[in-house]
Design a protein that fits this description.
By secondary structure, the chain is an all-alpha fold. Among the domains are: 102 residues, Serine Threonine Protein Phosphatase 5, Tetratricopeptide repeat (Alpha Horseshoe), CATH 1.25.40; 103 residues, Serine Threonine Protein Phosphatase 5, Tetratricopeptide repeat. It has 28 helices and no strands. Helix 7 packs antiparallel against helix 8 and helix 10 packs antiparallel against helix 11.
Length: 635
């Protein structure tokens, strides 16, 4: 946030008002806020003409006097200042208009900073837009502040292509940053402890095993344009040499680069080195500890060390809670450092991999309130519900085989409290499907050639050119979605939706979702198998066994890729297991059509443990239905 404005002498002679303004500014820098307010009040009583400037400075000083916690009061005053500047008023002198415009410019910037710290990035971009539109007309110091905040907001919202184009615009049109990364960056923005521009975008690693994990590090690691330039290039996977200067900012960015290069061991070593060096120097903060713990968890999640990853995420939450104990009474910087939502989502993904769906579901409930338009998050919640339901079925079957009654009586549940049930899973999947279909219609084909990506912005580019690039960033706070990951997500949603509908007895929806799944492009072999199985089961439940047999032809299973089965975390670990499951379902369809001899012959060859017991039961049922075998007739 920009501080009270520095005084400028507008007349040649010494002026008493100017002297008072200088004194007020000096008292503000010395944190003597009471005395500063007295001087500003005296200026106002003397009829000082720069009313908007005094009004803005008084609001800023009052905000600092209260410990930088009453940001809502400051925000209201800033909104009033910008509203007055925008409203047509009575004729005023040219000096008053100029001072009012200057105060409104700083007020707009400060409003955007407040929204940034409150994680309202979209609102911050909207409030900052008028200043960005006339960036070239601003004085250089103010232009640097606005450009820094705009770049941070673009990175925070995962608009990586637009951030890179905006960076080129700053280089070639405004010359605000160097054309090559600097190894010794200097802070171009004012560094006031509670009146500075927000910190740089989180320097964290991002994992997407199965399109699942998202980033969740904590900001607070520097905010110079040079550092933001490096962050932008690294996140856009551009080759750049990062020369560390002994600060955690550049060391953490080096770890990010290692992670993007898939050198996970070096990334982990780099993070541990940062932790050790800062511990020895006594400069460890909760923000830094949260960042390191979360990023270590993401690295272990990527290499499938799920238990270790969960432990790191728990540590990150503990560090984060030290920051977020009482956000209503916290400073804006502390408020922006809290990242519990992102960390909880990462922890939920780890819990899913550890087969702990209840804990995963509880983890997802918090981030879904903030990222409610993220279809991937709704899908993960549905997966937790499905896993919990299947675990209950297995437990009930085990208890029934053991002859022991259920030890947990059914308790009434409130319809207003989300529970990991199949009904809630269906709701989550409808939300995920609706959102994904909506975003798919607006999907931007960003898969361009490497030559196009690496071509720099021409130096005679207009100001609006940086607005043209688009990012498919509708799964915030995770990275932008590629065409391949979008198609995988659509297939996963269709498959899960069909499965849940079958479990709930909604056969029509199950068949519709299965057909939509089979119509997807670039469908994996595993999803192709699920589509045919779910479609066949739905048709059998709808008394259309003849049509179901068309989906249960065992010959197509032999053409599937065995690797696609072996690398997935599910029961069908081989093509042989898939063949047995499909043949069993086909035998059921034959039995429903009273084609009993052929069904019995098919069941005779099923020996896999997944279907052996069910195949034996179905064969006995067929034997009973066919009746005793006549004498002399081979069975």
């Amino acid at each position: 946030m920009d501080s009270a404005e520095s005084p400028t002498k507008t007349q040649a002679g010494e002026d008493e008002n100017y002297s008072l303004l200088c004194q007020a500014h000096e008292q503000f820098n010395n944190s003597e806020f009471d005395r500063c307010l007295e001087l500003l009040q005296e200026l106002e009583t003397r009829g000082e003409s720069s009313g908007p400037v005094l009004r803005h400075n008084r609001a800023v000083v009052s905000y600092h006097k209260t410990g930088c916690t009453q940001h809502s009061v400051l925000l209201k005053e800033l909104e009033a200042l910008t509203a007055d500047a925008d409203a047509p008023g009575e004729a005023s002198s040219g000096l008053s208009l100029k001072q009012g415009a200057a105060a409104a410019t700083v007020a707009r910037y400060n409003r955007a900073v407040i929204y940034y710290h409150r994680h309202m990035f979209g609102t911050a971009l909207e409030k900052l837009a008028p200043l960005v539109a006339r960036l070239e007309a601003l004085e250089k110091a103010m232009a640097a502040l606005v450009a820094t905040l705009q770049l941070q907001l673009l990175l925070a919202t995962n608009q990586l292509n637009r951030a890179e184009a905006f960076l080129d615009y700053l280089q070639y049109k405004l010359n605000l940053v160097a054309t090559a990364p600097s190894s010794n960056p200097t802070d171009e923005a004012a560094v006031n402890a509670s009146a500075s521009p927000p910190a740089a975008t989180p320097i964290s690693v991002v994992a997407t095993p199965g399109g699942a994990a998202i980033e969740g590090a904590v900001p607070g690691l520097g905010g110079s344009l040079q550092l933001l330039q490096l962050i932008t290039l690294v996140l856009n996977r551009k080759p750049v040499v990062i020369q560390e200067d002994g600060t955690p900012e550049y060391a953490a960015l080096k770890a990010q680069q290692y992670y993007i290069m898939k050198d996970f061991q070096m990334a982990a070593k780099q993070l541990m080195r940062i932790n050790n060096e800062c511990t020895q120097a006594g400069t460890v903060t909760p923000q830094l500890s949260t960042c390191i713990a979360n990023n270590m968890g993401v690295i272990h999640l990527r290499v499938r060390h799920y238990a270790i990853a969960a432990q790191f995420f728990q540590n990150a939450l503990n560090f984060d809670q030290q920051l977020a104990r009482n956000l209503r009474q916290s400073t804006l910087q502390t408020m922006s450092s809290a990242r519990s939502c992102e960390i909880l989502y990462n922890l939920g993904v780890a819990m899913l991999h550890l087969r702990r769906p209840k804990e995963a579901f509880q983890c997802f409930l918090v981030p879904v309130k903030q990222f409610h338009s993220n279809p991937r998050l709704w899908l993960r919640m549905a997966e937790a519900c499905i896993m919990e339901h299947e675990a209950k079925l297995v437990e009930e079957e085990r208890q029934s085989q053991a002859g022991t009654p259920s030890t947990k009586p059914y308790a009434p549940q409130s319809a207003g409290v989300p529970e990991p049930t199949l009904e809630f899973a269906a709701l989550c999947l409808r939300s995920a499907l609706t959102l994904t279909q909506h975003y798919k219609t607006r999907f931007h084909m960003t898969a361009v050639s490497s030559e196009d990506v690496e071509t720099p912005e021409p130096k005679d580019a207009t100001q609006e050119s940086w607005r043209h690039p688009q990012d498919n960033n509708f799964c915030n706070p995770s990275k932008p979605v590629s065409l391949e990951s979008l198609e995988k997500m659509m297939a996963t949603i269709y498959a899960a939706h069909s499965f849940v509908s079958l479990r709930l007895g909604d056969d029509v929806t199950a068949l519709e979702m299965a057909e939509q799944l089979l119509a997807c492009e670039r469908l994996s072999d595993a999803h192709k198998l699920l589509g045919h199985m779910y479609a066949g089961e739905a048709l059998m439940m709808m008394d259309k066994a003849a049509e179901a047999r068309d989906h249960l032809d065992p010959t197509f299973v032999g053409t599937l890729n065995a690797f696609d089965f072996e690398t997935r975390d599910w029961q069908l670990k081989s093509v042989d297991a898939a063949q047995n499951v499909v043949r069993y379902n086909l035998a059921v369809a034959m039995a429903l059509q009273n084609d009993l001899p052929q069904a019995k012959a098919l069941l005779a060859n099923l020996s896999h443990s997944l279907v052996s017991s069910k195949a034996l039961a179905l064969r006995r049922f067929i034997d009973l239905k066919m009746g005793p075998v006549p004498s002399g007739t081979p069975s």
